[in-house]
Write a structure and sequence with these properties.
single chain; GROEL, domain 1; 3 domains; three-stranded antiparallel sheet; 16 helices; globular
């Protein structure tokens, strides 16, 4: 039997599935990515503005940190999420430059949209962007300046540059010195290669004082209190035991029932529990330990015996803090109190409890050659302290990246202008259609100095014109002085950034732009659209 309607559509997807294809899909995705970039663009640079984000529970975050803004916004559009991943990658790899990476990705897609209108095929654009990114990375390696770990002035400028325009700006010189000292104290040399684990720098925030009262503790600060009020509050020349076990009577591993039929048996049972707890504390005391940090609980009776032994103790210390304590004091984390020996103990010049802003904290300080330290950051309010913490985190990431790679460049838009100039020269040597994509990549790079100028209230056209002229005269570090509006030598003015920020931002932004350009079909399953909510394609 013949089909009465040969043109009847055939449905192969569930009924509620929404599908967008061709140019509509591309434009939808590009629009979402551009919206993400626009959301953070005004936060870029020393004159960038802050965003206030209020979640459903009423919690307020005030920040100009790109990755924090994008994470708190809870973006749902699938293409927009891909751009947010760029910021997260930048944060994880370097710790700074998230806004730069996102703004660049958005601009690359904006320039690509113009070429799509001229019927340039997306695969040609993707290939051109790939060529441009490879060439840009080569140019970066050529212009980067090598530094050494003892060049404190350069490292200080890197930390200050990272914090300029953020909540910590008023005290950036003091904080920069603390950052450099912290990073250098945890830095190690492995086969001639610098190794820095920035997780070894713990950042604690406390409200109630100005940022200039922030301090570096050569050891670990724990947001804990001593378990018993009768324990010593201060222990000098401390011998520290780290226990990954409870100082309590354990329950049996299998389900068991103990039957007691007369008071004598009960008394004997309780006596045995007491003897066991006393044995635990006696064993700890015999090793020479004067301080105990326990990852699990400490029984009330065990606390009593610890008080009698003159031992300071804290319980339920986080695993991450236990590991930091081990690196700071040289102690070993022991999983059985029976196996604890004097060789497992760590050392600290002083362990003390101090009340800061109505909260007790334990300071493990004056450690000899600690490989984990704590930056205690102060702020007038919770929001201020948290924003200073984010700025300090950026500074630590930048200094660590500069020391690992030993290569730095100047900021203030100088690098992007030099890359744009080099890419235009490279594009002129190409004879295929990819030349247009390389030129578009070069134009997109200028969004960084343009945004710096706009955020400072300057005329972006005048600023870019002056910058192009300076770079044409081989002034590779010519950047924008956002405070005066003039062109400056960014290197001489101390606006310095690690090369890793630029290389990572370039590669991440180019890769996500290429991926989004190659998408020509978006299929949204029904499960993604709960009743009463717009589809991800309709919202950011």
């Amino acid at each position: 039997m013949t089909n009465p309607n040969p043109y009847q559509p055939i449905f192969i997807l569930p009924e509620d599935t929404k599908r967008t294809s061709g140019k509509d899909a591309q434009r939808n995705n590009i629009a979402a990515a551009k919206a993400v970039a626009q959301a953070v663009r005004t936060t870029l640079g020393p004159k960038g503005m802050d965003k206030m984000i209020v979640d459903a529970a009423g919690n307020v975050v005030v920040t100009n940190d790109g990755v924090t803004i994008l994470t708190e916004m809870q973006i749902e559009h699938p293409a927009a999420k891909m751009v947010v991943e760029v910021a997260k990658t930048q944060e994880n790899v370097v710790g700074d430059g998230t806004t730069t990476a996102v703004v660049l990705a958005g601009e690359l897609l904006k320039k690509a949209e113009d070429l799509l209108d001229q019927e340039i095929h997306p695969t040609v654009l993707a290939k051109g962007y790939r060529l441009a990114e490879v060439e840009a990375q080569k140019i970066l390696q050529l212009i980067a300046v090598e530094i050494k770990a003892d060049e404190s002035d350069v490292l200080r400028n890197i930390a200050i540059t990272a914090m300029t325009g953020k909540g910590a700006e008023a005290n950036k010189e003091i904080l920069a010195d603390l950052i450099i000292k912290a990073v250098k104290s945890i830095m190690t040399d492995s086969s001639g290669k610098v190794v820095i684990h920035i997780d070894d720098i713990k950042i604690e925030t406390r409200v109630g004082d100005s940022a200039d009262k922030s301090e570096l503790v050569e050891g670990i600060v724990l947001d804990k209190e001593i378990v018993h009020p009768a324990m010593p509050k201060r222990v000098e020349a401390a011998r520290i035991a780290l226990l990954d076990t409870a100082l309590e009577i354990k329950n049996t591993e299998i389900e068991a029932k103990i039957q007691i039929t007369d008071p004598v048996q009960l008394h004997s049972f309780l006596d045995q529990e007491e003897r066991t707890l006393k044995e635990m504390v006696t064993k700890i005391k015999l090793t020479g330990a004067t301080v105990v940090f326990c990852q699990r609980g400490i029984d009330d009776l065990a606390q009593h015996f610890l008080v009698k032994a003159g031992i300071l103790a804290a319980r339920r210390v986080k695993r991450s803090d236990m590991e930091k304590l081990a690196r700071a004091t040289g102690a070993k984390i022991v999983s059985s109190w029976k196996e604890l020996t004097s060789e497992d103990l760590g050392r600290a010049g002083l362990v003390r409890e101090e009340k800061i802003a109505d909260e007790e904290m334990i300071f493990v300080e004056k450690c000899l050659n600690p490989k984990a330290v704590t930056l205690l950051v102060r702020g007038g309010t919770d929001h201020v302290a948290e924003e200073i913490k984010r700025a300090v985190t950026d500074g630590i990431g930048d200094v660590a990246a500069a020391l690992r790679e030993s290569l730095v460049v100047a900021g203030a838009g100088a690098v992007e202008m030099e890359l744009a100039r080099g890419l235009r020269s490279y594009a002129s040597r190409l004879s295929s259609r990819e030349q247009l994509a390389v030129q578009a990549f070069a134009d997109a790079l200028e969004i960084i100095p343009r945004t710096l100028a706009e955020n400072a209230g300057l005329d972006p056209i005048d600023s870019l014109t002056k910058l192009r002229s300076a770079h044409d005269q081989q002034q590779i570090w010519a950047g924008i002085n956002v405070f005066t509006g003039e062109i400056m030598d960014a290197w001489k003015e101390g606006v310095i950034e690690p090369l890793k920020i630029k290389t990572q931002a370039l590669s991440s932004a180019a890769e996500v732009a290429e991926m989004i350009l190659r998408i020509d079909d978006v299929i949204l399953g029904a499960a993604q659209r709960p009743s009463g909510r717009p589809t991800p394609a309709d919202e950011l």
